[in-house]
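Incident log, structure service

09:12 report received: a user says their structure output differs between two submissions of the same chain.
09:20 pulled the input from the user's history:
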Amino acid sequence: MAKTEPKKAGEGGIQRLSLSTVGGARRTLSRVIKDLHSDNVELEKYRGLVYGITQLVAFFKLENEMDLEKRLAALEATVNTKGEKQ
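09:34 re-ran on a clean worker, output below:
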């Protein structure tokens, strides 16, 4: 099976990167994988995109964990304040 040349911008392949949410990153990763499978993106570009998306998702996870820590600290402070009043 002959390998086809990757398509250039505007000819198919990766059109846009929706990365502002976890869901957008997931859909973009899905598109990137499909484009690799269809030979619409070069392997080197695919690897770079997947690495970048992986790092972005790690930041989303860290942000979520930090938010949970804040909420937990607020709950603990509320419980401690109520416990001291009794």
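09:41 both user submissions now match this output. Likely a transient worker issue. Closing.
09:42 reviewer note: Helices lie at 22-37, 43-85. Residues 22-85 form one domain.
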